Amino acid sequence: MAERSETESRKLLRRLRDLLAEPGAGQERLDRITHAIADSMHSEVCSIYLFRDDETLELCATEGLKKESVHKTRMRLGEGLVGRVAKTSSPVNTADAPAEKGFRYMPETGEEIYSSFLGVPIQRLGEKLGVLVVQSKRARQFSDDAVYALEVVAMVLAEMTELGAFVGEGEALSALHQQPVLYRGATGQEGSSEGRVWLHEPRVMITNLVGDDPKKELARLNAAVDQLRLSVDAMLSMTDGQDKEQSQVLEAYRMFANSRGWMRRMEEDIARGLSAEAAVEKEQSAARARLETVPDPYLRDRLHDLDDLSNRLLRILTGQGADTGAEMPDNPILVARNIGPAELLDYGRKLKGVVLEEGSVGSHAAIVARALAIPLVIHADRITTEALNGDHILVDGDQGIVHLRPEETVAAAFRDKVAMQAAAQTRYASLRDLPATAKCGTTIALHMNAGLMADLPSLVGSGAEGVGLFRTELQFLIRAHVPKRAELAAIYASVMAAAKGKRVAFRTLDIGSDKVLPYMKRVEEPNPAMGWRAIRVGLDKPGVMRMQLQALIRAADGRSLTVMFPFVAEMDEFRRARQMLLDEVQRERQIGRKLPGALEIGAMLETPSLAYAPKAFFEMCDFISIGGNDLKQFFFAADRENEQVRRRYDLLNTSFLRFISLIVQRCEDTRTHLSFCGEDAGRPVEALCLAALGIKALSMRPASIGPVKHLIRRVDLTELRHVIDTDCEAGALNVRASVMDWLARQDI
Ligand code: PEP
Ligand code: MG
Question: Average model confidence (pLDDT) for the chain?
């Protein structure tokens, strides 16, 4: 950039800063700003449009257009050139605006006489706030330098609104961080709660955007970057190359911290008049904007690295730590972009809810939230840029909805719903010690799913008959290193002790796919869900599985032991895994240790192929448990992690029900005990249908046991079977409508 325009933009920035330092009401100040920008950019018009709501922009201040149109002229996102800038988050620069595609003439503004148009988005860290426009009569394309200067000014404006400099005047401005916002995300863990926002990583507040002395700012930036590099090097030397994954992440960090391109862009921003921290933030904003458009997960990870690095740099420059000294409010609801399982466990049951921008149903954080029974909503897009510590917030984990700063009527309706749920829970509690016996006399065994010690108290509270699925990988996921055998044995022993003789089905390590151990070498796979996971890893690299089996045998210490192997696709895999367990028992016998009093070995049926395995397989299994989450994903070829498809197929689809019936039949023929432990077992209507098809044991989240039992006790399963069969024979695609109708006819 030419020296002349550098000084121009610096002058403009300084002028802006001085303007802001002057006293005055918001609107008056906005007007002065538009005047100063128009003057400095040698254009007749400068206007500021701000979002009034997600879809509408409003003209909030102008120099050059008719004053009467201020706070009156509005356009929708995508409408006209201003709307296009806002929608695409990129500048529009044209010498002949009326000839531009999508141009919309606003007669009340008197803009018809202006030919050139330059509009840039006003945004802060990816949050869209509005559009800044300059226009002039003379037909000219604005230079790249002018575009740049206007972008920097827009960034300064974004910070000013952020700081509440104008709050109180323009409606759109005063709305920032104050209005109610509704987020439609996805369910990570069911349940509802009301509380106050607690930001996991509070934002760094930047107060000085404009640098007086570029040399000084540059020196500050260099010193901070040096410090950053040293801290990354120190982290790297601490891992000592042992922890490969972590080293890789840190190597990537180091690469960015030493990147010339990154430094050069920040140096240029400083030369144009920004302070060191504003230059860092500008780069961070650009990285966030790119994040939204990059589909490649590897690149996205790298952009995240850059984002984290920028945060560290900002903290060094501003001296603001992650711990701001703010006090955690009562009923805290954690709001974060993402969070690791160990960090979430650190907060523990203090939290009333968790809201994440990212995450997935199978993510580690989701697993822990489930274990702690904290409502969790994931995919609440950009909530961290909108929420402030202490904001009132309602989390509806059942629907995947979050209300930030809700209206009182919304809060009241929400409280009614929570009260109704609480009343239902009391009703369910009265059934705790009664069996799930249907009117036809059939009793269904209800078990719970678990994975952490923290789950065990629910065994008594829920009335579960046992633990139908203990996901052992959780103990591995929440650690930074592979747990030792003795450590595992101690954990399993306390689980068995807490179960007080009730059956616990320990599932061996199910890693791979969505469950990646932080300390395991990551194998890049095109399709990890169908890749090297679970029992496949255990058979190919038997070290960890053997160690786990030994830990289980030792933990049993004379008690009964139930082990099940996940993701078995063919008979031989089960045969080999089973033999491995028997070999370990034999070895323990040889060294004179106490053996399990009884041993049950089962398989999870999670791949359609296993339903067609030879009869010998069913005979070899002491029991089979259908892992409906995986089975459904492979049956329908619908990724359980993909929001676009994961709700598309229903358990009550007749093809799937026919398939379940086939499994039931094969287990009945061989007298193999059959249970179902996917998420569908915890949904009352689905559970009812599974029971009607002949599945006598269901394993689910503890909170689902009450509702499922309540429903089973009110129906006749033989009648329901008849409803399902009639529908299937009639060629229905799905039995849900008929089942709901049948329930309604009985006032259920
Ligand atoms: C399943 O696949 O249904 C199951 C219970 O296992 P997970 O959800 O842990 O894969
Ligand atoms: Mg599974």
Answer: 86
